[in-house]
Design brief:
single chain; about 450 residues; outer membrane lipoprotein receptor (LolB), chain A; Fusion Protein Consisting Of Minor Coat Protein, Glycine Rich Linker, Tola, And A His Tag, Chain: A, Domain 2; TolA/TonB C-terminal domain; 3 domains; 13-stranded antiparallel β-sheet; 5-stranded mixed β-sheet; 28 strands
């Protein structure tokens, strides 16, 4: 089955190493099990019809809206229809003969992530062995379904200028997939429900960038009769038969295609004035940068400036065997700037001193993998006797030393669960979150589950 993109290692430099976990367990067996249990099209797959709706719940007018509908019988026979504000796609495969129609020219990276997650969430499972990831069993006393994670650290950029990048994959206690975080693909898998011999997520969450949370909801997932004709494909006005393929390239190749001037670094309010900054970008077939997301920076205050400039870049159009393609790449830049108020730099307006840098927003999956100490909350006796289960979600700020700075409840099944969760979590500890070696304060969401045994 041909998928939307080959999730290869083109954005990585050659030197790869695993860090952060002790132990020698290979992730292959664990990943293969997750592939079997969590993928609609993997082993033991049955014909299905699925409808996925993607939105940004906090922003009704968000450009991040789409539907994905798929009828799948086998790798030889399936049909997919994608509809978003700027891109529409129809793909039909019959006896391995594929027909593809596209309108809009650019297949967004954020949308491709959800298509991958919903249909075949680990189609590039070999990635984890290539980056030397190792699976480690967690022993946290806190109520949680997660039982193991694998983490890898590697370099992104060029041989001369590179930066740390991270990848984390976590699994539930039954072997199903819990979350994936990589430079090119990230997703959390929630609300798992049985489907044949599998347990398929019905809610997908992607923290696309700080402040942008996308949610994909499965509105329909049902078995279909094998051999029954699929609905006819909709006609698309101004449809193109050119495949909406995307290829990963290294930074050297990216810079060879780029038609741009050097990056300009504005003065910063606080933080480092020199260091490295990494971004992940996606480019359309005409050579225009369409998406740019921060990965790692010695000063997060420069990420917005880097993104604004990258979105104005143009590249020579790329092609694969003569066919125009989109390209993606992880990029690392060295920056040198000055503090606002320094000689030659504009002073901050309406302020006697520069404000402190805001906490970096980090996915709960990444933060959870860095947990070093936890305490199980005391199950409220009345709720335990009544056999009531529940959960508490809290906005959390974790300091540079890995200690909890603040907890703000945002959802709770019962006030008694809230009290118990806060009492326990305020004593949890984490490894400091590092941006290229420097610890920073982070903001995330911590979820505590209470399950009656």
């Amino acid at each position: 089955m041909r998928f939307f993109v080959r999730l290869g290692l083109g954005f990585l430099i050659a030197s790869l190493s695993s860090v952060g976990f002790a132990g020698n367990d290979s992730p292959n067996e664990t990943i293969n099990k997750a592939q079997t249990l969590s993928s609609l099209t993997g082993s033991h797959a049955q014909p299905f019809h699925m409808l996925l709706r993607i939105a940004e719940p906090s922003n009704p007018n968000s450009p991040y809206q789409a539907t994905v509908e798929e009828f799948w019988e086998s790798p030889r026979s399936w049909q997919r229809v994608i509809v978003s504000k700027e891109f529409r796609q129809n793909i039909s495969v019959k006896d391995k003969v594929e027909t593809e129609q596209n309108n809009g020219g650019y297949y967004p990276l954020w949308l491709r992530r959800f298509v991958t997650a919903a249909i075949d969430p680990l189609e590039d499972s070999v990635f984890w062995s290539r980056v030397s990831a190792r699976v480690v069993k967690t022993t946290n006393a806190a109520p949680s379904e997660r039982s193991s994670c694998a983490r890898a650290q590697f370099k992104i950029g060029t041989t001369a200028v590179n930066n740390d990048a991270f990848a984390v994959i976590c699994f539930n206690s039954d072997g199903t997939l819990d979350s994936v975080v990589r430079p090119d693909y990230s997703m959390e898998f929630h609300d798992l429900q049985p489907f044949g011999k599998k347990r398929i997520a019905h809610t997908y969450v992607d923290f696309l960038e700080p402040g942008t949370k996308l949610v994909g909801t499965v509105e329909t997932l049902e078995p279909i009769e094998k051999g029954r004709p699929f609905p006819g494909m909709m006609e698309i006005e101004n449809a193109s038969s050119v495949p909406a393929a995307s290829s990963k390239i290294g930074q050297d190749s990216f810079e060879g295609l780029a038609q741009h001037s050097a990056m300009v670094w504005p003065p910063v309010q606080s933080g480092n004035t020199s260091g490295k900054l990494s971004m992940y970008v996606s480019v359309d077939r005409d050579g225009k940068v369409r998406e740019a997301y921060p990965l790692n920076s010695d000063n997060a205050g420069l990420q917005a400036a880097a993104r604004d400039q990258l979105l104005k870049w143009r590249l020579k159009p790329a092609a694969n065997q003569g066919v125009p393609v989109q390209v993606e790449s992880g990029l690392t830049f060295e920056f040198t700037t000055v503090q606002e108020g320094a000689i030659g730099a504009p002073a901050p307006q309406n302020s006697s001193e520069a404000p402190a840098m805001k906490p970096i927003v980090v996915s709960p999956a990444v933060v959870s993998s860095m947990l070093t100490k936890s305490y199980a909350p005391v199950y409220p006796q009345a709720l335990k006797i009544a056999r009531i289960s529940g959960k508490v979600e809290m906005d959390a700020v974790i300091g540079r030393n890995g200690q909890i700075v603040s907890l703000t409840p945002k959802y709770s099944t019962d006030p008694e669960f809230t009290k118990a969760a806060i009492t326990a979590v305020q004593h949890w500890a984490y490894k400091p979150y590092l941006l290229n070696g420097s610890p920073v304060e982070v903001q995330t969401v911590i979820t505590v589950k209470f399950n009656v045994q």
